[in-house]
Amino acid sequence: MTWVIVAVVAAILVANLLKLLPRGRMLHIQRLREAARKLGYRVERQPETAAGAQLEHCVGYRQSLERCSVQQEFSCERDGQGWRWLLGSADNALALAVLDTLPQAVQRIDRQSFSVLVFWIEPDSIATLEQLDLALAPLRQSQAG
Q1: pLDDT tens, 4-27?
Q2: How far apart are CA 24 and CA 92, in angstroms?
Q3: How far apart are CA 121 and CA 114, in angstroms?
Q4: What Cα–Cα distance (Å) separates residue 19 from each residue in 22, 25, 72, 135?
C-alpha cells in the first residue's frame, strides 16, 4: 500500500515540475532572446499604456550605438501603406536603406542618439533575427566611417 502512495505522490510532483519547464513557444522565445543578447541587443518589454495599439504585442530590442547627430535621428512606424515618419525626414538616405531591408515583423524603429530600438513581434525563426541584425548593420557601420 505504501508503494501506491509513494508512486502517486511522485507522479504528482513530476507532473507539477513538468508544468514549470518551458515548452514550445516559450522555449523558442528564450533561445531567440539569448541569440539576440549574443548579437548585442537588450530585450525590453514595453508598458502597455506607453505604446499604442500598433505595438500591443511587440517587444523592444535595443542595441547601443555610437552617438549620432540630431539630424540622423529618426523614428518610423509601419502602417498599411509602408512607413510613417514620426521623427526625422524621408531625405535621410541611411534611414531609408535600413527601412527597406527590415523584416516584416518590425512595427517601429527609433534611432536615438546612442541606440536603436526596434519594436517587433518576435518571429518563429532565428534567421529573422539575423535578417534584422543585417538590416541594422548600416547604422553601426556609419559610425565606424
Answers
A1: 888 888 888 887 777 776 677 788
A2: 41
A3: 23
A4: 8, 14, 48, 38
